[in-house]
Amino acid sequence: MTAIKQLSFTTVMLLFSVIAVAQETRAQRFERIEAEKIAFITKELNLTPSEAQKFFPVYNQYFREISTLKRERRSDKTPYTPNLQSQKLPSNNLNPSNRDVLAFDAKELEVKKIYRKRFSEIVGPARASRFFEVEEEFRSYLLRELQHRRRDRDNE
Question: Does residue 7 belong to any structural domain of this protein?
Answer without folding.
Answer: no
